[in-house]
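Example A, followed by Example B.
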Amino acid sequence: MQFPIAGAQGQLPGTALMVEIVEVGPRDGLQNESVRFSTAQKVALIERAVAAGARRIEVASFVRADRVPQMADAEAVIAALDLPWDVTTIGLVLNARGAARALATQVKELGAVCVASDAFAQRNQGQTSAESAAVAAEVIGLALRAGRGAQATIGAAFGCPFEGEVLPDRVVALAEMLAAAGPREIALADTIGVAVPAQVGALVGRVASATGLPVRVHLHNTRGMGIANAWAAIQAGATTLDASLGGIGGCPFAPDATGNIATEELVYLLDRSGVAHGHDLERTIAAARWLGDEMGRALPGLVSRAGGFPMRAS
């Protein structure tokens, strides 16, 4: 199934700022859902996101099926995709074994992950924080040598559910270690949704300065700070933000971690702020509503309920 591709939206005359949105609903959004999505449903979700304007999209993770059952069909999803040439598909991998699986598919970019605290790293990946960073650097190298793209994410960068506060110096040191491996960007993940705008802005600035790489930000809305944090990240120079249609998502290994910021809410924010982003709001809302119908429940995103503004005449 193919859909018309949306044109760029959300730029006011005379503005030059551009923010890239990475759609993470098909991976980070679905991974915590108890109701299994079929391969066909995942492909339909990806196609709708692309039709709304997504050009980088997390399509799967190559992890153990017994730990994350929703991602058991990663290879089948990627094999079923027929997307425009300019869409970058991303596969999350946690180790060399996952990288080998990903590189056996046509996925264009590998997402490596390390974790900023030892306690969370042990629960998420069975490693210490330093060990997770070394493995992430190895994954980046494997991807680059295979001619694929590579990105790196630091999980629990703003706080750990088990250890509490995470020192910014620790995050910066991890970012420098990852940057030496050559990823396209460093992502800071508020995995459990504890960050506030001042904290986000400060850490984005420090990591960008320390690494010289673009900074991507992955935000969860657990405490209602997600969109405010997104704006703080943009003001601090973040060039890419993750978001999930309908605001679905969560981490299976982080207690009480709720969904990502909703793609339609980020698009609305950027539209009304005069920031270019390449997505169409109405199509994004339609995709989120379709996803809610497929899940049989109301999703967390508010803009998909209220609609855009000014309202279009019916």
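Example B, a separate protein, is given below in the same form.
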Amino acid sequence: MSAKTSLWSIFKCFFTAGATAYGGPAMMPVLRREVVDKRSFVSREEFRLGLGLCQIIPGGTLMQLSAYIGLKLRGLWGALAAYVGFSAPAFLLMTLLSTFYSGTRSTPLAHSVYSGLKVVVLAICLMSCLDFVKRFAPTRRHQAFTAGAAALFLAGAGIVPIVGGAALLGIFFLDPGPAPEIGDGPAGNGALRLAVCTGLAILAGLGALYLADRMLFQLAVSMIKVDMLSFGGFGIFPVMFAEVVEHRHWIDGSTFIEGMALAQVTPGPTMLASAFVGYVLRGVAGAVTASVSIFSGSFVVVLAAAHYRNAILRSRQARMALSGVLATLGGMIVAVSWTLAKDVPWGWQSSALLVLALGALVKKVPVYWIVLAAAGLSMAIY
């Protein structure tokens, strides 16, 4: 740990990254520029190893990486400063947008805008399907996982058995590729005790929430569940849909897709779409509860994983299980896309907007520009 790096410096660095990083994997170079190139918080090699570790464990990859780097700098408080800094811009914007959404959703103009934004989210889902298949289902075995997950999801199978089964079957049937180069450095920095203490603190917080407000308690538990079943950024999409729409029935598919549309215009981690769900259910208290909970479980995991970093990165079984999960998440995105397509008001307007959005995504136009352009166009054509 480095006593020279202040907690304020850590928070400010990650807040800057969280406020300027858009677009899932495109956020990684922004974060690397801030912590490696500009501030030299960690070496490029340490950044690479941290990224490799965070791609294996559940949760939002870049949120986990932020905590990992903060942990290296100043222990538990450094990890918290990085975590809060990176997520704060997206949380603040999502809460403001959710407030605006709740106050305007019933107006005719808002109806037109959200009709178009549903099409954009569907386009993003379709492109994410292709991306997941291309990156994580390169062989017929992987593609069988993808197709099987889509079929099971549409048939009503639970998210836990789908993801858990994929991880188990992946250990026996999938090739994870070569292990990353690790070198001869230490396995970790003794963070296991911090993980245990943090986990106990979270359990105590859940107990207090259970006594104070059962609805917020259920929301917190659900978001922890979503967190622990999600891998990568957009991998949260089918998991959260399954939990809040199909299992809990807290919101309908139309509201969910509108919330995901709002999440596309905010920087930082996509997982903070949880703030929208929480706000719709219980206002600001719900947004805070959902946003804290969506990262709490994986925060404990990254603390423990840092202690066993080298063993995890070298583990062939861990990488095989991850291969199965990632291939499966691609299939569930396909299934959710099919389900959400039913909530789109189809006609020539939606069809044309879908083609335009897909074309813009292929050309790698930033997602927030696509969303903003679609919102403006929707007011004219719907």
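On Example B: The chain has one domain: 108-381.
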